[in-house]
Design brief:
The structure holds two protein chains of two kinds. By secondary structure, chain A is of the alpha/beta class. Chain A has four domains: 6-92, no CATH class; 96-161, no CATH class; 184-351, 3-Layer(aba) Sandwich (Rossmann fold), CATH 3.40.50.300; 359-545, Rossmann fold (3-Layer(aba) Sandwich), CATH 3.40.50.300. In chain A, 52% of the residues are buried. Chain B is an alpha+beta fold. Chain B has five domains: 2-121; 234-444, no CATH class; 487-569, no CATH class; 580-627; 682-778, SH3 type barrels, CATH 2.30.30.100. In chain B, 46% of the residues lie in helices and 12% in strands. Chain B has 34 helices and 25 strands. Classes of the chains: A alpha/beta, B alpha+beta. Chains A and B meet through strand 2, helix 4, helix 21 and strand 25 of A and helix 15, strand 12 and helix 29 of B.
């Protein structure tokens, strides 16, 4: 028994005791192959998954090293069967390689003839493979590179993609360090991404993912396509790029519902790309409009299904995915892995917070007791209307008002999902509302006022979930949301996590109706953050009102 | 010979005789009456075969050398001749060993090989054929002229040479397949090979020796066991991996038995547990079916699970009383119970799921899994592993090679069993990372070698450990110590950083849900589990106290809130039983009823201002109320008034006997079936009538006037006569299914317990086991 910080479980989870003196060394040793699943305050949970182990193989780690790390840091004996399983799983990666053959183009080479035969017989690969070059090499139709990788991953024989990337159209991009430098973790993230060629970087909201993107562009020195969730987010990217890089206004184009500019660096929204006319995607040409050297996917956890399909065709271009939460409510993490690339960098939120890069936050759930009338209305509501009834209960209004009162003088965001509710909140708090129908111009104006401090309280709808940079917001009050969405909760917390100029603590309140489905959804929503170490305090509405 | 051998034994010192008995312990089971009996037994085939089984590859080679160097006239050889043939220094020790075993007897210059050796070993010592003189005069002539023999060999075409080289490596007999075999024909034509049957050729000893000029007459001599190049691991690492697996094995066994407890498996009528049950258990345990089968067999062998009769239906397979005691023990003795059971069980669990000779799947716990040799196979494999330096992890192939060298006669044909032992040992944690663990070594050590029993026969030492064996103690030192505290986190997970103490496990089992097991246990507290704990009688304060007492870290506020919140709601709805109720909008009237002393016997209770309840039935309530002068109305479940009617009495209906039906009509297909059946029977009877009476009679009951043995002897005599005369014979025999049959055949040969005979009608060669033949009569 070594007394190490790690406990290996039979279900392939690894428990890391955070307060152990070797915890940091152990984290460094296991991070390359194990995925951080939860990081609450005392014991962090990592999981050994085939994806994670293959990822480690891709990064040059071998099974012996993994086994050694497990044995070295494990407090208790590690089951032999688990070690064997790790070795066997890792051994599956790289038996097949995607290569650029000098005469035949893209080929699939099998280092193990039996495996190549097995997969080439699979129905899932029908139509992707061409003729045999020799016994160990099969021609791959270049257009099928992404889909082939997806299919091979599903078959459990992930291919090592050594076919390389096109350089793309060269374009000079420099970071302009004026009063700032890349933080260590940002540099590590960029290095991790560049070494792998393509992949996903996971950083908490407010930790400066845009800068990771900018640094990746500076590394690539090539024309770049940036895909973002909405126009406002796109404009923030543009602002940030103008401030932090040598790029000028003319070099950055916006491709959105309003403008269709194609420039060396083009920022496009998911929405416009997935817009259809007559059943056909009309803006697909953008992907081929230039010889892009780098494609950046912002908020990759929201990537719509059609974009995955387009991405399958972009396998020869470098791809960088950015996100705070690789949790997809639709469970398509495997597609992110095979199409965008493996996770190249990940850091626990609390680590970044302890380094002072994101603001410390205090999360509170306020439980409102509904009035008898509201309870009756809830009890008799249809199943599908129940959440709306509970979430928009008028009893929440005085609580929200009291919370806003309590933080008088702070920059406060009130976030909700139902327009009616937002309107009554706007009236009650005497605050402007940003919602889907608000014009971009109006949004920009309100956000600017908020940033400057002229506007203290802002009521925003779901449009405010992502990528809105409001650094001075210190308080967020959530009144309703999209059911039990874990990533929405995290994103909303992210609105107040940008470090404050005076190092103030951020506050995040979520107001829920007691004894209703609202509470259940809230618990589900909080799970991701709780696993990231954010402890929610639960208080009664009466305490807030008192 | 037996006399001289017995005399020789008589001349031995007690020590030497004792040494022989030590080396061949089977000779004293039972203890022989005298030395003549011992001599007979020592030369018996069974005992000699057993002695040979224990010999390693090299010693057997030296024995072959002794057989080869025998003088053709008096059958003796000498030490010098044997050593010269082996040309290895180690040969002397091997020869000494063979003499100590009395497989070779006599003085140095006149060694005798015990005759039974030839009977129980290959007829081709060292893979060489018989001398040419015994085979064929033409070949003998060729071999007598060494120069011509060499020339003929050199003249062999390359393909023929390849055939020669293969036969020279042994065995020296080749079977001919296909029709065109030019190289073999050439060799036979040139007398280098001799055709010994239609389908086989043999290489004469002289040719083989000549071809082995470079390797030596015995072929490749291997005085040392094959080297192991497998990974060498830190013995501690191997121990650790093994101990981890041992913990896992105990946990899995427990999970499997728990699954069996929740839903016992039905024993099939044919014996064993069905595939479906096995699959279910495997799924519940979270392992694949082979592992589940192994655990099931081991649990059965360890007495943790067993069969229970049922009054109706098949017997059930479920955990025994012993299981409950086992569960209360600590990990190490629990594991030891499983491992010792595995070591000793005469079952080979790896056979489960394979198909038997009738192509039916083999079920776990069925008779087909029984293998008497399984314990010996385990012992052999573990011995091989145990003799390697600690931490050495040989590949399975290397283990097989070592086994094949150590006792080739035993290892032959048992490769699969040996591989299964390796797999089982890894699953159970006897080995770790392919190397045997320190406690595995102790487990495999024969009694008295590893145990502390010699030094501490009464187990007085170290009071607390007294029930621990050496194996358990060694394993226990590697296993984590039980933990009595938890870490509670804000995401409502509860982590026990080690194996929980039994009391802690019981507490957590109730208040939280088990999420992950292994070195530690992770539980999650949910609304449902808190509610479950409250239902079980805990109060909110008890739960707070429990979490505070067990947690090493502050209890998160979220958990405290959750407990309080659920406790607040708990009991918000009350459910109870009542016999009948009284309701009325007149609250005053109900108060009056409650106060009425005449109704006190009804035990009325006020549930709400307008509802009273009583444990008694409606009838009694109505009567009591009416007697007291109140006017109650009886209402049904929907609230409508019930109008009572007096009941009328009726007798029960008696069942009327059903009408007898006509016998079913004979339909056309059924008739056709019956006719076909009759015709077939008729044809069979006629065919049987063709066979002579004696044969038929013998098939049925026995030939008149003869016992079965006499009939059999007579039949053999008839057959031997028929072989010589190439005559047609009616043979009666018992076939593989136990049915009797007879056949008209022309015998070709008798030997090795079989009759080979030609059926002229079908032009096929048949083989009959002699012991199955009941009668034989020459065709008239």
């Amino acid at each position: 028994m070594t007394g190490g910080p790690l406990i290996v479980q039979s279900d392939k989870t690894l428990l890391l005791e955070v307060d152990h003196s070797d915890a940091q060394a152990c984290r460094m040793a296991i991070a390359p192959f194990a995925e951080l699943e939860r990081s609450p305050e005392h014991v962090h949970t990592y999981r050994l998954t085939p994806l994670g182990l293959w990822n480690a193989r891709a990064a040059g780690h071998d099974a012996e090293g993994v086994v050694d790390a497990l044995l070295r840091f494990s407090r208790y004996p590690v089951p032999h069967a688990l070690l064997v399983d790790v070795a066997e799983t890792m051994d599956r990666y790289g038996r097949l390689q995607l290569l650029n053959h000098p005469t035949d183009g893209l080929v699939l080479r099998g280092l193990d003839r039996a495996v190549l035969t097995e997969v080439s017989k699979s129905k899932k690969l029908a139509g992707m493979l061409g003729a045999h070059v020799d016994e160990d090499t099969i021609i791959v139709h270049p257009s099928e590179r992404g889909r082939l990788k997806q299919a091979l991953l599903k078959l459990g024989w992930p291919a090592e993609d050594l076919a390389g990337y096109v350089d793309g159209e060269s374009h000079q991009i420099e970071l302009s360090f004026e009063g700032w430098t890349l933080r260590t973790y940002q540099q590590e993230a960029v290095d991790g991404f560049w070494a792998g060629g393509s992949g996903v970087v996971v950083l908490p909201c407010g930790a400066g993912k845009t800068l990771v993107g900018a640094a990746a562009m500076a590394q690539a020195q090539a024309t770049t396509l940036i895909l973002v969730t909405n126009t406002v987010a796109g404009r923030q990217w543009k602002r940030e790029l103008l401030a932090r890089t040598s790029l000028t206004e003319e070099e950055i184009g916006e491709y959105s519902g309003e403008r269709k500019e194609i420039r060396p660096v083009t920022i496009a929204t998911y929405q416009v790309l997935t817009a259809r006319r007559g059943g056909a995607f009309t803006h697909l040409d953008l992907f081929n409009a230039r010889d892009w050297g780098l494609v950046i996917y912002d908020e990759v956890h929201l990537l719509p299904a059609p974009i995955f399909r387009f991405t399958a065709d972009l396998q020869a271009r470098r791809r960088l995915g950015l996100t705070a939460t690789l949790v997809r409510e639709d469970g398509r993490e495997g597609d992110v892995f095979s199409l965008i690339g493996p996770k190249r960098y990940d850091a626990p939120w609390k680590d970044i917070e302890s380094q002072g890069w994101i603001a410390p936050a205090d999360c509170t759930e306020v439980r409102v007791t509904l009035t008898d009338d509201e309870r009756m209305a809830y009890a008799t509501a249809d199943q599908e209307d129940r959440y709306r009834f509970a979430a928009t209960a008028r009893s929440k209004l005085p609580v929200v008002k009291a919370l806003v009162e309590r933080h008088k003088g702070d920059q406060i965001l009130v976030i909700g999902a139902y327009i009616d509710q937002l309107h009554s909140l706007g009236e009650a708090l005497d605050a402007p509302i940003v919602q889907g129908s608000t014009t971009n111009k109006e949004r920009e104006r309100l956000f600017d006022e908020f940033r400057s401090g002229a506007l203290k309280t802002l009521v925003i709808s779901r449009v405010g979930n992502f990528s809105i940079d409001l650094p001075e917001a210190t308080v967020a009050v959530q009144v309703s949301g999209t059911f039990g969405s874990r990533q929405e909760e995290a994103q909303r917390l992210g609105r107040v996590l940008r470090p404050k100029s005076d190092g103030r603590q951020a506050h995040f309140y979520t107001v829920v109706s007691r004894d209703t489905i609202d509470t259940e959804y809230a618990a589900h929503r909080q799970r991701f953050l709780a696993e990231q170490g954010y402890a929610y305090t639960i208080v009664d509405a009466d305490d807030v009102l008192a | 010979m037996a006399t001289t051998f017995a005399d020789h034994l008589r001349s031995l010192t007690d020590a030497d005789l004792g040494e022989l008995l030590r080396l061949r312990p089977d000779l004293v089971m039972p203890v022989p009456a005298d030395l003549s009996a011992l001599a007979v037994r020592a030369q018996s085939r069974v005992s000699v075969a057993r002695a040979l089984d224990g010999l390693d590859h090299f010693t057997l080679q030296i024995l072959d050398a002794a057989r080869l160097t025998r003088d053709p006239d008096d059958g003796t050889t000498s030490v010098d001749a044997v050593l010269a043939m082996a040309a290895r220094p180690e040969a002397r020790a091997a020869l000494t060993r063979l003499r100590a075993l009395f497989l070779i007897t006599g003085p140095d210059d006149a060694l005798h090989v015990v005759p039974a050796v030839d009977e129980v070993s290959s007829p081709y010592p060292a893979g060489l054929g018989r001398p040419a003189a015994d085979l064929d005069p033409r070949t003998a002539a060729l071999c007598a002229d060494p120069a011509r023999l060499r020339r003929t060999l050199l003249a062999a075409p390359p393909q023929a040479r390849a055939v020669l080289d293969r036969l020279a490596d042994g065995p020296p007999v080749g079977t001919l397949t296909g029709t065109a075999n030019a190289p073999v024909s050439w060799l036979v034509d040139n007398a280098l090979l001799v055709r010994i049957s239609d389908e086989a050729v043999e290489m004469p000893r002289e040719v083989g020796l000549l071809l082995r000029r470079d390797a030596g007459p015995l072929g490749a001599v291997r005085p040392q066991p094959p080297a192991v190049t497998g990974t060498a691991r830190d013995p501690k690492t191997a121990d650790s991996a093994g101990a981890g697996q041992a913990m896992e094995a105990v946990r899995l066994a427990e999970a499997l038995l728990d699954a069996l407890d929740a839903e016992p498996a039905a024993m099939l009528r044919s014996g064993g547990v069905g595939v479906r049950d096995l699959r279910r258990l495997a799924k519940a345990t979270g392992v694949d079916e082979p592992v589940a089968a192994l655990l099931l067999e081991v649990a059965n062998a360890a007495g943790l699970a067993g069969e229970a009769e049922r009054s109706a239906g098949e017997p059930l397979f479920l955990p025994t009383i012993g299981y409950d005691a086992w569960r209360g023990q600590t990990l190490a003795p629990r594991w030891e119970r499983l491992a010792t059971a595995w070591l000793a069980m005469t079952r080979q669990a790896s056979l489960v799921g394979q198909r038997d000779e009738r192509d039916r799947p083999i079920n776990a716990l069925s008779m087909e899994v029984e293998r008497a040799g399984a314990p010996a196979a385990r012992q052999a494999v573990l011995e091989v592993l145990g003799d390697l330096p600690p931490g050495t992890a040989p590949t399975p192939e290397e283990v097989l090679a070592l086994l094949a060298w150590r006792a080739p006669r035993r290892a032959k044909g048992r490769e699969n069993a040996h591989l299964a032992v390796l797999a089982d040992a890894a699953t159970l944690g006897v080995t770790g990372l392919g190397a045997i663990t320190s406690y595995g070594r102790l487990l495999a050590a024969p009694d008295g070698e590893g145990g502390a029993s010699d030094e501490d026969p009464l187990g007085v030492r170290a009071g607390g450990d007294s029930e621990f064996s050496e194996v358990a103690r060694q394993l226990d030192g590697l296993l984590p110590a039980p933990v009595d505290h938890v870490l509670i986190q804000a995401d409502l997970t509860v982590v026990v950083p080690g194996p929980p103490e039994p009391t802690l496990a019981d507490e957590l089992e109730l208040v939280a849900e088990h999420e992950s097991a292994g070195g530690a246990s992770v539980y999650r507290v949910t609304e449902a589990t808190i509610r479950r704990a409250l239902d079980a009688g805990y109060t909110a304060d008890d739960l707070h106290a429990l979490f505070r007492r067990r947690s090493r870290t502050p209890v998160p506020q979220g958990l405290t809130y959750l407990v309080d919140d659920i406790a607040r709601k708990h009991g918000g709805l009350r459910v109870g039983g009542a016999g009948a109720y009284i309701r009325s909008d007149d609250e005053a009237l109900l108060v009056q009823l409650l106060a009425d002393r005449r109704l006190a016997s009804l035990g009325l209770r006020r549930l709400a201002p307008t509802v009273l309840a009583t444990p008694y039935q409606v009838g009694r309530l109505l009567t009591a109320l009416r007697e007291a002068g109140y006017p109650p109305v009886h209402e049904d479940a929907s609230g409508a008034a019930v109008v009572a009617r007096p009941k009328t009495r009726r007798a029960a209906v008696r069942a009327v006997a059903a009408l007898k039906t006509e016998p079913p009509a004979l339909t056309a297909p059924r008739l056709a079936g019956i006719v076909e059946h009759i015709r077939r029977g008729d044809a069979a009877a006629r065919a049987a009538r063709r066979a002579p009476v004696t044969v038929r009679a013998a098939n049925g009951h026995g030939v008149e006037g003869l016992t079965a043995v006499q009939a059999h002897t007579q039949a053999l005599a008839v057959l031997q006569q028929a072989v010589r005369d190439k005559a047609l014979v009616w043979v009666g025999y018992v076939d593989a299914h136990g049915a009797t049959a007879s056949r008209l055949v022309r015998p070709v040969s008798i030997g090795a317990g079989y009759l080979r005979a030609e059926d002229e009608r079908t032009e096929m060669l048949h083989t009959f086991a002699l012991h199955r033949i009941t009668a034989a009569v020459l065709d008239s």
